Fold:
Amino acid sequence: MAVSNASLEALSWHARFLGEAPGDEMVGGRPRQVPGKCWSRVTPTPAPSPTLALWSTEMAEALGLERTDKAGVVLGGGAPVAGMQPYAQRYGGHQFGNWAGQLGDGRAITLGEVETENGFLELQLKGAGRTPYSRTADGKAVLRSSIREYLCSEAMHHLGVPTTRALSLVSTGEAVVRDVLYNGNPAPEPGAVVCRVAPSFIRFGSFQIHVSDGHHQTLRTLVDHTVRHHFPHHDSSTDEGLIAWLTEVAERTAVMIAHWMRVGFVHGVMNTDNMSIHGLTIDYGPYGWLEPYDVDWTPNTTDAGRRRYRYGQQQHIGAWNVARLLESMAPLMDDVSRLQPVLDHYMEFAMNEQSETWAKKLGLGTLQESDEALVNDLLELLGATEVDMTLFFRHLCTITAPDVAHMADAFYDGSEPDTSTWNRWLKRWWERVDGEPDRGTMLQVNPKYVLRNWMAQLAIDAAEEKGDFSVAEELYELLKRPYDEQSEHEAKWFQKRPEWARHRVGCSMLSCSS
Structure:
């Protein structure tokens, strides 16, 4: 078990994945295909000048870990301590709907699992150097993307959204060349490494790759390992057990996406290699929060043409991804026809989750048949006007009369509300709740503060230009209590997107390098 305020060496390290799943015989080495294997041993690349810049006290407490300079060195890619057995996981995936073959941890290195009082947690460095799955890349990460991942992981946790967590951010003291928008303009940027934490980093693509390769015994071994350690209440040896496990994975996925929709979050790159088997938000890249409510918005410039991963499409993509996971289980099933009902269940379950989500956001209590029209009419109104989603729903929690004037500051300049139209809808809603919406529930599901891209960009600017992480620290503390009023922060952080951020790279435009 982890010891309170322990060093990294004193933690209880384990390597269950390495011990049970087949691995690569070569240690490290050049990028290559590793058929039939689940992992490759690697050694992190030490940072030339590591500085522990950000530290999650909550995550450290869960691990029983103290903050020290040595921890910063190791978590920046320095020599592993006794007990760690670093490796990179191999997986495949569908990217933007197309099978991409072997992918794997190209810039992530797992240090090992730590046994804590509440179970096992895997610690993984993102940006600590090349692995056999890096292809033509360097395996490094830049400061801007690392700040975004660190802050968003922790912010999502406090919003109540299932997510991986972040323990630390270490600036490396080296320059990393990146082409921010993939438009032929590479430039050096400061490097960084984030240590992220989860029960495991097993993904849908972890199973898909072995079906693609035809290595069904490896698939079986991985499934048995996953169920034994992470879903021990299921039995992977029978069709019934597999179906029960897959149904739980499908439900967890639907719940996660319903939470994304609730807070206005857009993942941006819902490839199957970015789908956690635990139903956790994973791989924070070109994400964003809706500012003006727009079901067709995606922050990902790579997806600007098709908008496959746009906000309003996320539950449907969840279903598509679950279908790919189910397909990968066919070689293990005696009766593959039993897989289709799992997908059907996902669709029904996801729709119910969405309905419950909107009912809670509107304080409706028990859903009625007429509520669907009420919700749909609101969403149509929101989409027809440039209105800030977070501000609108937060104001709705406290209004005392059905008058849109109470939420005037949620509307962007040049897009003032049609007062009569909005007030007609508000009157319908007010009558539906008898003038007494369930404000307690509304205040618990409609956050006052979310990590808007322009907020993260201010933290990035300060860190990149001045080496100043105080804005990142301020946001980290603010977003621990996203549903609290925190009136002292209202003027600075409870506001619409500023005009300077409307078309700025890092705010409205992000790529998979973000």
In short: The chain has a mean pLDDT of 96.
